[in-house]
Target: Transcriptional regulator
Amino acid sequence: MVLERGLASTRVADIAKATNVSGGLIHYHFATKDDLITEMLRSTSEAEIQRLREIADGPESAVERLDHILRVCIPASRDDQGWILWLDAWAVGMREEHVRTILLQFEGAWIDVLRDVIAHGVALGEFVCDDPQGAAERLDGMLDGLAIRYTLDAGNMSRARLLEHARVAAAREVGLERSAFPAEAAP
Model:
């Protein structure tokens, strides 16, 4: 329902009807719509961050981990439901504190994962980067901006081109040549 109607326009009654449960049952578990939306966003963001942490802690080289995270974090397609949800949440978060709080926690955790992968690569001698935190913040901002352009189909951005931009930027941030990352547009 949230993907269909948007965070701001979805009502508890809409969710109750779509899930074939009573509004009273939903209100038994969530006092307000804000509580329900907050829990939905928290659960979604925690699952996404857990997935990224598993990649970050995986057995691959630092370059492979960073590339894997880049591929996971860009939209799979223009109608990627996860990205549509986050785009909507960012808009709502400008006005609603409960959504903004979740978004800031999610962005902070995502940047932490990126920073940790970069710092790990530096410790292994695979990367050269004197500011892993700054590198992670720059990559985050660039990826968010390009993903928005891609999702909105602005400027005919393809997923392959978005991934190429991500790999070029990541290589620059960690002191590598672009050729250190895969040449093909991985799935």
